[in-house]
Amino acid sequence: MFRKVLVTAAMLAAFGHAYAAVDVNTANEDALRGIKGIGPSKAKAILDERNAHGPFKDAADLGKRVKGMGGHTIERLQAEGLAIGPAGAAASTQVAAAATGKEPAATAAAGAAQKGAAAVAVKK
After folding, report:
1. Is the pLDDT reported for residue 54 higher than 80?
2. Distance of alpha carbon 4 from alpha carbon 11, whole angstroms
3. How many folded domains does the chain comprise?
4. Is 120 domain-assigned?
5. Distance (Å, rounded) from C-alpha 84 to C-alpha 59?
6. Band of the pLDDT at 6, cuts 50, 70, 90?
7. In which domain, by residue range, is 8 found?
8. Residue at 123 is within a domain
């Protein structure tokens, strides 16, 4: 019984953490500052670098391009909910879809394909 409660609590925590992810490539200053460990100056440095040289490819790219963002710092920020790179982009798309109640076309097509239905893209 205790094991079931523990597993349920862990699943709920993981589920909540997945929807709390902040993508470094799309977040504004307020969203970045919402991550524990990122203050106003670090958020500004991230945004300035992203605006000057484009999106971050991965954690190593973020570490190289933003002063003061070493490997351990980035790992800690990722544990706090910072998402970086392609995986982060997919997570933020799902979060945005959940928040607006709309499903992105790619996600809808993938879901339809998994169910065995034909997917048709409709342009609005």
Report:
1. yes
2. 11
3. 1
4. no
5. 6
6. low
7. 2-115
8. no
